[in-house]
Amino acid sequence: MFTPAVYEWGLDVIRAFQTLSSPPLDGVVKILTRLGDPVVGIGVALFIYWCVDKKKGFKFFFLLFLAFALNVAMKALLKVPRPFLLDPAVALIPETGFSTPSGHAQGSAAFWTLLGWICFTKHRRTGAALAVVVPVVVSLTRVYLGVHVPTDVLLGLAAGYLSALGGIHFYDPLGARISPLRPSFKALLIAALCFCLNALSGGEVNASGALFGFTLGYVLLRAGRAAGTEHGLEAAGDARGTAAGVAPPRDGGALFRKLLHLGAGGLVCSVTYLGPRVGAYAAGLGDNPLVGFIRYALVGFAAAFIVPRMLSRLS
User: Fold this and answer.
1) How far apart are CA 55 and CA 212, in angstroms?
2) pLDDT by residue, tens only, the chain of 315 residues
3) DSSP assigned state of 52
């Protein structure tokens, strides 16, 4: 699949796409490609978790970051160079890291599939259309911009859809088996999963670190609720939004209030990210994989445990 002949064909496809290049089209494509940025999926997952429904938000976040971590592991395993390293003339935007599979294609396929499954409960056709159209558009933009050849995005789409559909199929049955376990056993399971992902990641530990911290925080939050110490925002039901086929908000607040919660949570996570980052680089440990894993685990833990507790008290 990644023979020199196939790769050269991929470069020819990029050059053919770029015959259409113009400053206005380039600008539009650079905007559309952002639909596949990880920050979009993270923002939506956190909004659902903090402001709508913690169980659905955790499911969304866990499966999305599992797809991110699998992409990192596959790139480290395949080690396929970016097309602009072979022909610098095709690069319309800068990118780093390996090329195969496309992270934007895989992430957008997983994100929009999960979004349709979790949120568009009354309008499955709309959710399915978004899950097909948006990832395909994002994939085409990655080829146009010269950061991926077609085989990169095809493998990314396949991996993203498979990971999302596998998560949809297996999450609830596995969750039913894991749910009765003690929190300490659950923490060991997620630690083992993240250890395996780290072993395959080639030193890129951001996704697995965030996955570990977020899952650990959620496990502790649930344990606190079971003990009667967590009063989360999901306590009150609300039927609003069901007519649109979107999961109903459960804290009864207005959209403005939810956005304030999102902003407050984002601020806490930003401080949690920037503080250890500055300290790590000041100590000369900024590129240490273990330190990086701990930093992202702290951000994930803050998002899953600290922010909901803070919002619960503010409410």
Assistant:
1) 17
2) 567 788 889 999 999 999 999 999 999 999 999 999 999 999 999 999 998 889 999 999 999 999 999 999 999 888 889 999 888 999 999 888 888 999 999 999 999 999 888 877 777 788 888 889 999 999 999 999 999 999 999 999 999 999 999 988 898 899 889 988 898 899 999 999 988 888 888 778 888 899 999 999 999 998 876 665 444 334 333 433 443 344 444 444 577 888 888 889 999 999 998 888 788 777 777 677 888 889 899 999 999 999 999 988 876
3) I
In the block, residue with structure tokens 């009765």: 180
Structural tokens at position 260: 């304030």
| Measured distance CA(55)–CA(302) in Å, rounded | 17
Q: Which of 186, 165, 173, 178 is nearest to 66 (CA)?
A: 165
Q: Where are the domains of the chain?
A: 4-314
Q: What would the DSSP string read from start to end of 70-86?
A: HHHHHHHHH-PPPHHHH
Count of helices and strands (H, E) across the chain: 13, 0
Residues whose CB falls within 8 Å of the CB of residue 216, separated by 6 or more in sequence, listed in order = 187, 190, 297, 300, 301, 304, 305
- Whether residue 54 contacts residue 308, with contact meaning beta carbons closer than 8 Å, is answered with yes
Distance, in Å, from the CA atom of 20 to the CA atom of 24, rounded to the nearest integer, reads 11
User: Measuring CA to CA, how many Å separate 218 from each of 19, 50, 62, 224, 232?
Assistant: 49, 12, 10, 10, 12
The answer to whether the beta carbons of residues 44 and 60 sit under 8 Å apart is yes
Contact predicate 211/300, CB 8 Å: yes
**CB–CB of 50/262 below 8 Å?**
yes
Which residues fall within 8 angstroms of residue 142, CB to CB, at 6 or more apart? 33, 36, 102, 104, 105, 148, 152, 153
